[in-house]
Amino acid sequence: MTNAPLLLGIDTGLTLTKAVAFDLSGREIARGEARVPQSTPQPRWVERDMEDAWQGVVDSVRQVLDSGDVSADQIVGIGLSAHGDSLFPIDANGRPIRPAILSLDSRAHTVIERWRTEGTLEQALPLTGQVPFASALPALLAWLVENDPDSAAHMRWALGCKDWTRFKLTGTIGTDFIESSGGFCDIQSQTVSAEAFDLFGLGDLSSRIPEATPCLEIAGTLTDEAARLTGLRAGTPVTAGLHDVAASAIGAGCVHPGQLAMVAGTWSINLVVADQPATDPRWVCRNFVEPGQWFSAAWSPASATNLEWFVTEFCAEEVKAAISAGISPYQFVNDEAGAIWDQPSDLFFHPFLYGSPHGDHASAGLFGMRGWHNRGHVLRAILEGITFNHKTHVDALKSKFPISEARLTGGGAQSVLWSQLFADALGIPVVITDAREAGARGAALCAGVAVGIYPTLPAATDQATRILRRHEPDAKRHEQLQSSYATYLRLVEALGPVWMSMDLSAAAP
Q1: Average pLDDT of span 109-130
Q2: Which tens digit of pLDDT belongs to each residue from 413-428?
Q3: 63, 82, 71: which is closest to 6 by C-alpha?
Q4: What is the pLDDT of residues 63-96, one digit of tens each?
Q5: Which H helix or E strand runs over 17?
């Protein structure tokens, strides 16, 4: 262990919370992670105990310090990242008033349907830069007022996940410039808008939204209590943090207009940074890191989590054997799917286990199954289906933004086979950087700018990002996948009425 200064990035995801220490060149020195449980007490509900979320931060940070490679005195700045579009409500004393509602939750779909019928969604797009979806903050707050008025009455602050971590670390209440644009922001002025609150009928809750701090500024310092729990040094600077979508883009080196950042994780994230706002119902337009910057992100909760679900539910023995052998539990996926990779794609998968870009009624499905198909065909169909869902979003963005390459992070980036599939399906080069933990590194680099280590964010990413692989699209394979994608979309169109009838008949709240 040396005494060299380090930056700590804390990234709270929907499944794992990760803490990673980086040196000033962006290289990982030590990491820790904690799996934080979710609960689904009713159909469409996805919740988390807020104290469990905080304990996940404590445990992951402790692992970094217990690694023997990092001392608390080396940490000169802490950056925060977390999934957005959630609700972590606390009372005036900073205590949780109910479980957090996560971004996989869709209980507020009835609110969205009502707003669609009333024309509210149409009005929201030019004002806020986005059409609210079921887990967007306006919808969650409206659901809370209508269905849990006691919690709404006792809620002093409507925090995001990252804001809850900031509060537990520093004792300060606030959000960041990006999170502040999650539903109540005038996208032109980039400031919170009273008109937006009134549009959603939530004017009485405007005082419950915390003030925004710039992403590249220090929001507070570590309290004595947080230092005692985590092992970090009291007084260590903590930034306001940022949405993990933006943090992952930064961690992969995407900070300039026209660069496409893709995250194949729990959500399908597809993001382009721009110097002008661009609104379209197919994506959300939100603030980026600094005033005068925006990002357009086409996304849905329909990416690599589908593969994780299949492997967890149906391949337990393979996972157990892989762990015993010390190899990736997903290696068999590459082996079995790769064995039939050159065969025609005649099996199709819709990766809509937790949501889709085709409405809240869509569900997952496997189509074209025949007796000669084996598990390898199913695994390949899942990989292709997830990739096609990304393609739906990327094609929308390409209609507005010039895109020359995509930088891929998340589970998909770990597989050479899958990375090439992305390139072939999208028809553009796909670049894989050394950002193993892109969200944590993006947050850490923002902390580095905040404490004065880097002069600017582009300077930080230039210093900290290295390209590992570049996948060029294969023209013949691209043509084949275009045909398969057309079938995939026809299935989506044909199933629309079926999904609607199935969902309306279900006994879901």
Answers
A1: 96
A2: 999 999 999 999 999 9
A3: 71
A4: 999 999 999 999 999 999 999 999 999 999 999 9
A5: strand 16-22
CA 415/CA 422 separation, integer angstroms: 11
pLDDT cut 90: percent of the chain above it = 91
Per-residue pLDDT tens digits for 123-142? 999 999 999 999 999 999 99
Under DSSP, the state recorded for 452 is T
What is the pLDDT averaged over residues 187-195? 96
> Whose CA is closest to 86, among 14, 8, 190, 2?
14
Question: Which of these, 183, 205, 70, lies nearest to 128 by C-alpha position?
Answer: 183
Distance CA 156, CA 163 (A): 14
Q: What residues contact residue 329 under an 8 Å CB cut-off, 6+ apart?
A: 311, 318, 319, 322, 323
**Domains recognised in the chain with CATH numbers:** 6-253+435-465 (3.30.420.40), 305-404+484-500 (3.30.420.40)
Q: What is the DSSP string of 220-244?
A: EE--HHHHHHH-PPTT-EEE--EEH
Contact 389, 302 (CB under 8 A): yes
d(C-alpha 155, C-alpha 207), whole Å: 11
pLDDT value for 193: 95
Which residue's entry shows tokens 């119902």? 281
Do 182 and 129 touch, CB atoms closer than 8 A? no
Please, where are the H alpha helices in 270-404? 305-314, 316-325, 331-339, 375-398
Instruction: Give percent of the chain with pLDDT exceeding 70.
Output: 98
Q: At what angle do helices 375-398 and 331-339 cross, to 10 degrees?
A: 90
Q: Indicate the angle between helix axes 416-426 and 475-505, nearest 10 degrees.
A: 90
What is the predicted pLDDT for the residue at 3?
Answer: 86
d(CA 373, CA 194): 56
How far apart CA 67 and CA 1 sit, in angstroms, is 10
